[in-house]
Amino acid sequence: MSRLFRFAPDVTAGSISALVTLSYSISYAVLIFSGPTLEPFLARGFHVALVAAALVALVVALKSSFPAAIAGPDSNASAILAVMAAGLTRALAGTPGERVASSVVLMLILTAVLSGLIVWLLGLLRWGRLVRLIPYPVCGGFLAGSGFLLLAGAFKVLTGQSLGWSTVHLLAEEPVLAWGTAFAVAITLLVLTRVVRHFLVLPGVFVTAIVAFYLGLWLSGLTMAGARTEGLLMTPIETGGGPWWPSLEVSWPALVTEWRNLLAMLVVVVVTILLNAAGLELATQREVDLDRELRASGLASLVSGLGGGMVGYLSVSRSLLNARAGATSRAAGVWTAALCAGIALFCMPLLFYFPRPVLAGLLIYLGVALLREWVWDTFFRLPFREHALIVAILVLIAAQGIITGVVFGLLVASFFFAYSYSRATYIRHDLSVARHRSNKERTLEDTALLQERGDLARALCLQGYLFFALASRLVETCRDLIVQAGVRYLLLDFRMVQGLDASAALSLSKLHQLCGRYRVTLILSGLRPEHQAVLQQMRFLPHSEIHLVSDLDRGMEWMEDRLLAGAHGLPGTTSAPVLALGNGTHGDAAGADIRGILAAHFSPDALQVLLGLCERLDIPQETMLMRRGDAGDALYFVERGEVSVMVHLEDGKRRRLRTLGPGSMVGEMALYSGQPRSADVVTETP
User: Fold this and answer.
1) 10-31 confidence digits (pLDDT tens)
2) Phi and psi of 427, rounded to 5°?
3) CA neighbours closer than 13 Å in the CB half-sphere of residue 553
């Protein structure tokens, strides 16, 4: 007995969720099978929708990361399915209704199978977060367009004709009981769902509307047959073919013509699932696995299609309704599925007594709710440009169709992004050798020369992703440096560049041509392998006139050496820097021995003692003189050549801290402290 009481909240919540799911499913079936050609086969639409309601609810209840999840047919997908059904009907005009209905049912089944399989694969590959790359205004514009399609569907349910300028007057010709009930249901739901936060609002309004409709029907004196003649009730007519699976008399060529809308359907399903999952996460403060929801809803649609149902997936509104109604486990979703299956198997004739205006009112409510959320509410939340894009997509969907609106939105959103990103700061640092130098020690004389002539050498540290717009701005910036500032050495550092495209490589080629005209040397540093691959594919690299260095520090050293060589009138590429022992006050000591370098700092006797402790070593280039962790048992004086102090980074690479020349002392810290050496020392020149 206690076990029964334990499941009582789930049974109650599941029953309420089943009533709401049935209401939606029936309205979507009427939406898809509206019109004189398809309405006689509405029983098939009911079967397809209810099979989906049962199977999708069952699979998602068992597989979702949210225990109270409720799933089933959805308004966004149903709006597109209705467009596809109308397109098939037009393409098959003049053919028997049986063939049209079979083609529509097969279309519903195939879209469920294909979308389910693709959505399941996206979840399996863990691509759920990639779908969030779709711009927010495009999603909003599409959902607003779906709201319009639902309103157009409600018009077709009431009048039997597609919404258009030439048919809009037909609504006034419908009985007052038809359009009055529809608008009353829609307005009541729109108001109550805003002011009353209770899970019984929707089912309560639905049941009350049915009772009020039949009361109005009785007061008007209309019989059931008369109500069906007036279009107030659905006519239970079925001509040939089984209700579960379509007959073989389908038009495959007509089905193929709907491939564009099928693509739109796939995007809609994936985006809606992720939006619903994110909405659940926000509303319940409970973490939801996006990839798991894709797998669950994808498998549910796949099972639904194989069982003869339509596409369906996780519903945020019904899941929250289920949770607020008291659901404590997955049993509520399973019970919802069982009730939907029972209705599909045993109570199908009762569905034809559902008032058509009530179902139309539910569609109007859903459509207006989407328009209110994505057109009205976003007006106060989004920048004008993004809101205008939502409205433009909505207008295009209403006038030209879903594909046109979505493609337009993606193109415009891409343009907005490119324009905004092109205005972003792409130069992290603008460095001059006069104010920022390498880690190579210089003499006082060389330091003064670099301060005097350093503005002739500039380094631009780039950042972000270089594409055509940013690369064009980079060329203009470099042109100003070359023409107006007289720069003769220009270094571009790519260490913080995430990527570049072919157009950026083309812009760099233009920059190289500009450098050639003004006899400016171009240096590139910090190029990653993927950067070099793009530049090589565009035949920008390798090039004899473009100098590549490993990092910014080496690039700054390279430019310093050229500036100093030019100042000294030397043809070589390196100067002979001298650092006197201690503070670097010595002048040029190139060619001097260690005795001459140290003579100014020691008395003759002390110098003789010191030199007696020294051993002269001739060390080749790129030799490891000291290694991090070695014992600090020796001190080195640099008599000729250069050595570099290198530290190890976390990624396994090494970075130069300092380059020391003749007259420098290295290794003294470990010798004085008795601690192991903290860095590597490598010979740069012999």
Assistant:
1) 888 888 888 888 888 998 998 9
2) -105, 110
3) 13
Lowest mean pLDDT: which of 39-48, 102-111, 233-242, 405-414?
233-242
The domain boundary residue, chosen from 534, 568, 602: 568
Residue 678, domain member (yes or no)? yes
For residue 388, tell me if it sits in a domain.
no
Q: What is the mean pLDDT of residues 587-616?
A: 72
DSSP code of residue 518: T
**525 and 625 share one domain:** no
pTM: 0.66
Strand 521-525 with 654-660, pairing: unpaired
> 262-275: buried (b, 16+ CB within 10 Å) or exposed (e) per residue?
bebbbbbbbbbbbb
What letters, b where the CB count within 10 A reaches 16 and e where it falls short, cover 149-165? Answer: bbbbbbbbbbbbbbbee
DSSP label of 217: H
Task: Specify whether 556 is located in the same domain as 670.
Answer: no
In which domain, by residue range, is 292 found?
A: 2-380
Confidence of residue 248 (pLDDT cuts 50, 70, 90): low
| Pair (476, 546) in one structural domain | yes
Residue 650, pLDDT above cutoff 80: no
Structural domain count of the chain: 3
Q: Are strands 521-525 and 546-549 parallel, antiparallel or unpaired?
A: parallel
Of 481 and 136, more confident? 481
Task: Output DSSP code: residue 314.
Answer: E
Q: How many Å separate Cα 618 from the centre of its chain?
A: 59
Question: What is the DSSP pairing of strand 680-685 with strand 642-648?
Answer: antiparallel
Query: 600 and 563 in one domain?
Result: no
**612 vs 207, more confident:** 207
Tokens encoding 291: 């990839």
Residues 544 and 620 in one domain: no
Condensed to tens digits (0 to 9), the pLDDT of residues 524-560 reads: 999 998 988 888 888 888 887 889 998 898 899 999 9
Q: Of 500, 502, 182, which is closest to residue 364 (Cα–Cα)?
A: 182
* 599 and 563, same domain (yes or no): no
442 shares its domain with 521 = yes
Residue 589 has pLDDT above 50, yes or no: no
Query: How long a stretch of residues is the chain?
Result: 686
- Give the 3-state secondary structure of residue 304: helix
| Average pLDDT rounded to a whole number, residues 380-402 | 91
Reported as a pLDDT band with limits 50, 70 and 90, residue 32 is very high
Strand order in the sheet with 654-660: 624-626, 680-685, 642-648, 654-660
Q: Which of 95, 91, 103 is nearest to 44 (CA)?
A: 103
How far lies 261's CA from each of 113, 266, 338, in Å? 15, 9, 32
User: Which pLDDT band, with edges at 50, 70 and 90, does 591 fall under?
Assistant: very low
Say if CB 116 and CB 59 are below 8 A apart: no
CATH, residue 540: 3.30.750.24
Report the amino acid identity of residue 450: L
Residues 484 and 618 in one domain: no
